[in-house]
Design a protein that fits this description.
This protein is mainly alpha-helical. About 70% of the residues lie in helices and about 5% in strands. Strand 2 (about 75) and strand 3 (about 80-85) form a beta hairpin.
Length: about 240
């Protein structure tokens, strides 16, 4: 984000609500995980057990499960077919841990079934990372030099990150849907209350992706308006 944008009323008009939504989403997911981490599943499954059971029930037997460091750093790596769970998810038998672990196992099921949005997201990761790193410097330098061409290149690079965020949404929602169905069909979630807890945790986590996408889209809209590519003015 440009330092100069901080003093632009248009920036806050577009980005302010998105930032508030992102803050609320982060607080919501922390609150939901904290709450449902206090309740153990009736079947006694830990996160690693739940993830393994979900994948096994889906016919996926070639994915390794490892412990990774960091709070809620859980993820599935399709390149190495490795599911990595943070310690508080891997070892815990809480409703929150089982839900999050099953969600990551849902990504492994997507990979095994050649779920198109997952493969598309993986394919554009390099472009998104490159755009995230280089877009704002190019936009700032272009603005300082009065080079609209350089600004446009920066905006195009930033658009790659926006596309990545948009593609992420169906990937994450689908993984949560697969997780909830599997947990119930296998019997890992044994009561209505547990099912509601899993749903609450995964819904809160999904909102962080929604908020990130809205923020990215709002930033892109700000850029094209501020530099006169979609109405507005060039300052």
């Amino acid at each position: 984000m440009s330092f100069f944008a901080l003093f632009d009323p248009l920036y806050w008009l577009l980005i302010g609500p998105a930032m508030l939504l992102a803050l609320w989403a982060q607080l919501k997911v922390k609150s939901s995980v904290k709450h449902w981490s206090k309740y153990a599943t009736s079947g006694g499954y830990t996160g690693v057990n739940a993830a393994a059971a979900v994948m096994r029930a889906g016919g996926v037997n070639d994915v390794n499960i490892e412990v990774t460091q960091g709070w809620l750093s859980d993820h599935y790596d399709p390149a190495s077919k490795t599911l990595r769970l943070s310690p508080n998810i891997y070892h815990s038998n809480s409703v929150a841990a089982v839900g999050i672990a099953a969600h990551e196992a849902g990504h492994a099921l997507q990979h095994a079934r050649n779920y198109a949005p997952l493969h598309l997201r993986s394919a554009i990761v390099p472009m998104a990372n490159f755009g995230s790193w280089l877009s704002w410097p190019m936009i700032i330098i272009g603005a300082m030099l009065g080079s609209l061409g350089l600004v446009k290149v920066g905006i195009v690079l930033f658009s790659g990150l926006v596309i990545f965020q948009i593609i992420t949404l169906p990937v994450e929602f689908d993984a949560s849907s697969r997780a909830k169905k599997a947990l119930q069909s296998i019997g890992i979630v044994g009561s209505r209350e547990e099912a509601q807890g899993v749903s609450a945790v995964l819904s809160a986590a999904a909102m962080t992706y929604v908020a990130a996408t809205i923020t990215a889209v709002a930033q892109l809209l700000y850029l094209v308006m501020r530099f006169g590519l979609l109405g507005g003015s060039r300052d």
